[in-house]
């Protein structure tokens, strides 16, 4: 089992593989998707920048409802 402690190697290949990449604007980009794609993430560490880019890419990014104080 992959959840066993210390078991880091798999004995078989991946069962299911996506044939096409995910597109967050497949059926036309909404206003939120356009805003999220246009944002520039400057002044952040490399890890935080990567997290935000992943969220935008897979449609998980949510803008703030109220401005931060």
Q: Mean of the pLDDT scores?
A: 85
Q: How many separate helices?
A: 2
First CA to last CA: what distance?
Answer: 47 Å
Radius of gyration: 18 Å
Helix content: 25-40%
Beta fraction of the residues? under 5%
The geometry reads as: extended
Number of strands: 0
What is the H/E order?
HH
Q: Low-confidence stretches at least 5 residues in length (pLDDT < 50)? A: none
* Main sheet: strands, sense, barrel: none
Instruction: Output the structural class.
Output: mainly alpha
Structure, described:
The protein is extended. It has two helices and no strands. It has a domain at 28-61. It is mainly alpha-helical and 69 residues long. The model has no long low-confidence stretch (mean pLDDT 85). Helices cover 29% and strands 0% of the residues. It has helices at 31-38, 46-57.
